[in-house]
């Protein structure tokens, strides 16, 4: 018998998470620790065993007029392999959405085209975009300063305008942990012409900028060289790449296009 509930002890979902995603146990435990008291977790249970799950991370969706809407970013949405193709995830989504009475929207980042189609059938639409560029590392005069999550949040909010997702410090702490575990971090990058904030991770000898605001190729290339990477891949504001989806709750009016940035992917 399948039941659905909000999990009061979300760490009980760790084994299900590890069975579905290529994450380390340490990374999952860090997620629970950094989001304790902040993340909402929902699960489908077969008896007492969780077999499908999702986490709802509270954020603010700032619209084009500067008004902040209450939203949740749905993260780690998954179903145990033996329970897939039974409609459990769709039912869990509907249950979580019905429980999120204090929020105006749900957001998520599908992993591939098939999942974009899956979520579209369930009322989600593509609303979050970014642009990407790839460039070789090189040396130049850039002042590089590592930032705390608090300092990063301040600088990030100064760089953004129009519609965007605003993150709580606890979620930026989560990104900081992931970035530093890879050998990179959160940064202020200052050139002669720009002051940027950057969240970067090292992967396979490449420096991946989860976001760079504003886009400054020179700064990205210099940080890549400083960290011993051959090249930089940059995500930044723009509308070239569909990235995330949104669904209004309770009839809320949402921006047509917005910037998500960090996805903790």
Straight-line N-to-C gap: 32 Å
- Just give the CATH class of the largest domain: Alpha Beta
Which spans have pLDDT < 50 for at least 5 consecutive residues?
none
Helix-residue proportion:
25-40%
Question: What number of structural domains do the residues give?
Answer: 2
The name of the CATH superfamily of the largest domain reads: Gcn5-related N-acetyltransferase (GNAT)
Please give the radius of gyration in angstroms: 19 Å
Q: Could you spell the SSE succession in H and E letters?
A: EHHEEEHEHEEHEHEEEHE
Largest sheet: 12 strands, mixed
Shape: globular
Task: Tell me the strand percentage band.
Answer: 35-45%
> What do the pLDDT scores average to?
95
> Per CATH, what is the topology of the largest domain?
Aminopeptidase
Structural class designation: alpha+beta
> So, CATH architecture of the largest domain?
3-Layer(aba) Sandwich
Count of runs of 4 or more consecutive helical residues: 7
Total E-strand runs: 12
Summary, kept brief:
With 265 residues, the protein is α+β, with helices and mostly antiparallel strands. The chain has helices at residues 14-20, 25-34, 88-99, 113-120, 149-159, 169-182, 217-226, and strands spanning 2-6, 40-46, 49-62, 68-79, 105-108, 125-136, 143-146, 164-166, 185-190, 195-203, 206-213, 231-248.
Describe what this molecule looks like in 3D.
The protein has about 260 residues and is of the alpha+beta class. The chain has helices at about 15-20, 25-35, 90-100, 115-120, 150-160, 170-180, 215-225, and strands spanning about 1-5, 40-45, 50-60, 70-80, 105-110, 125-135, 145, 165, 185-190, 195-205, 205-215, 230-250. α2 (about 25-35) packs antiparallel against α6 and α5 crosses α6. The relative contact order is 0.17. The model has no long low-confidence stretch (mean pLDDT about 95).
């Amino acid at each position: 018998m399948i039941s659905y509930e909000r999990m009061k002890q979300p760490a009980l979902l760790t084994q299900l998470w590890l069975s579905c995603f290529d994450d380390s146990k340490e990374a999952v435990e860090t997620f629970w620790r950094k989001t304790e008291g902040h993340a909402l977790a929902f699960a489908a249970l077969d008896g007492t065993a969780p077999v499908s799950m999702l986490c709802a991370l509270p954020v603010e969706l700032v619209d084009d007029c500067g008004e902040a809407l209450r939203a949740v970013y749905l993260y780690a949405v998954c179903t145990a392999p033996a329970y897939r193709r039974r409609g459990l995830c769709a039912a869990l989504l509907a249950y979580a959405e019905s429980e999120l009475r204090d929020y105006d929207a749900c957001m998520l980042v599908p992993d591939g085209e098939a999942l974009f189609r899956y979520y579209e059938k369930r009322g989600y639409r593509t609303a979050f975009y970014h642009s990407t560029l790839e460039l070789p590392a090189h040396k130049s005069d850039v002042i590089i300063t590592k930032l705390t999550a608090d300092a990063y949040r301040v600088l990030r909010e100064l760089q953004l305008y129009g519609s965007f997702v605003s993150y709580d410090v606890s979620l930026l702490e989560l990104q900081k942990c992931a970035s530093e575990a890879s050998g990179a971090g959160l940064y202020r990058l200052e050139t002669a012409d720009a002051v940027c904030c950057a969240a970067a991770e090292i992967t396979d000898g490449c420096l991946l900028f989860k976001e760079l605001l504003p886009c400054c190729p020179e700064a990205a290339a210099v940080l890549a060289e400083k960290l011993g990477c051959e090249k930089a891949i940059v995500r930044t504001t723009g509308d070239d790449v569909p990235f995330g989806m949104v669904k209004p709750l309770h009839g809320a009016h949402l921006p047509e296009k917005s910037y998500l940035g960090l996805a903790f992917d």
